[in-house]
Amino acid sequence: MKHKILLILILLLALILRWYKIDNPLADWHSWRQADTASVSQEYLKNGIDLLHPRFHDLSSFPSDIDNPQGYRMAEFPLYNAIHAFIAGNFTTFDLDQWGRVLSIVYSLISIIFLYALVSLLTDRYTGLLSAFFMAVLPFSIYYSRVVLPDPLMITLTLAGSYYFVKATRQPNLAHFFLSSTLLAFALLVKPYAVFYFLPLVWLGLITWGFKLLLKPSTYIFLIIVFAPLILWRLWIQQFPEGIPSNLWLYNYMNIRLRPAWWRWLFYERLSLLILGAFGLLPFLTGLVTKLKPKEHYFFHLWLVGIFAYLVIFAGGNVTHDYYQAITIPVLAVFLAKGTLFLVKPNPSLIWPFTPLLVSACIALSLAFSWYQIKGYYQVNNWSIVEAGIRADKLLPADAKVIAPYNGDTAFLYQTRRSGWPISFWGIPYLLERGATHYVSVNFDDQTNQVISDPNNTILEQTDRYVIVELNQNK
Length: 475
Hints:
Layout (H helix, E strand, L loop, with lengths): L1 H17 L12 H17 L31 H12 L5 H27 L2 H13 L1 H5 L7 H20 L3 H17 L8 H11 L7 H21 L11 H4 L7 H16 L5 H9 L9 H15 L1 H6 L8 H16 L9 H21 L8 H13 L5 E3 L6 H7 L2 E3 L6 H6 L4 E4 L4 H8 L4 E5 L4 E4 L5
Parallel strand pairs: 1-2, 1-3
Antiparallel strand pairs: 3-5, 4-5
Helix pairs in contact: 1-4, 1-5, 2-3, 2-19, 3-4, 4-5, 4-7, 5-16, 7-8, 7-9, 8-10, 9-14, 13-16, 18-19
């Protein structure tokens, strides 16, 4: 009962921390990626949920290098978006953006529960509770647990599927088998990167059943359930190349893999400073070398090996975008917990009680230094795009197609709640031929001034922060 009460308190703390700026528009850190996700939900809300034909607002060739007049968005399977649109369409407590954040928070709280359950199953409840605590309070984890992205759902499904897999090795039954395979299948559909958490599951299966595992029909049924949906989805989306974002750069952009800059960015700037706040390295590294529990079987070390493989294979994506490291949080939390517990226990080789005080100070400083870097993520850097978007949404017809130039960043286009183009280097005549009806800008550059000065265009609204123009269709 005591452990359940502590877990509830951790969940309550996690909820409070994640509620910070819950009403932020999608114009904070990584707003473009959040906007891409939310615009699929917006289209579902407007036109109905179609899981096989997800669409978003961007009609340009910018993401895929192919014109995309239907606005197809063929990336991850749109499970997150379907749930998001269904909830937002049936419950009006929050608007679409806020519901996206709330759902991600809910997923993150479920992740904390399953991390606690999984770690407790393999080690002990104290390690499970402390792992849950670190996942709840790390500033990087907090921010990326309340973004409108599918990653929180993927982490939840992966942890839940892993938990039921471990249960299946202890108590083999159909329920555990079905839950594990189904949850892991959905995790892969939401984000294929979930596969990098599968290595310890393979190892655990081998040490439980040995190589007889390869002769069991249930093994192949399990693999089919887990991988077939992803394979079918990837085959399906090949019919819509215009909707598949360019992705080769994710692997080894600028040949950065394993070069000094790769090590510096991922292990020094991101993992050490941004996520662990430098001082968190002490308990983390200690956790790596602490003695294993009898039931642990190198499970979490293999998790870490899988994550390292992920960082190596998707070197370009990981160096370019820090949100790619959200997947590292559960395993980092586990080793932080293991190291902290080792250091705070009485040990004749360590000075007591200074060691617990030192560890407590390191954890506090870790959270403080990480927060110092993360706090800027919540900042909306350009409120003009929000103001212009709100006015455009009120002034423009529902079927308007908008040019909202913002260097390819779809965050501005999303604020208008209209389909269109987030970049205009092709020129206005080119976009008019493709159906553009309006021009909304927060930058009074040469192109915007030309649009304003054209007597054939109609200025619907202009302030010192933005302009909304109806374009002449006869050009």
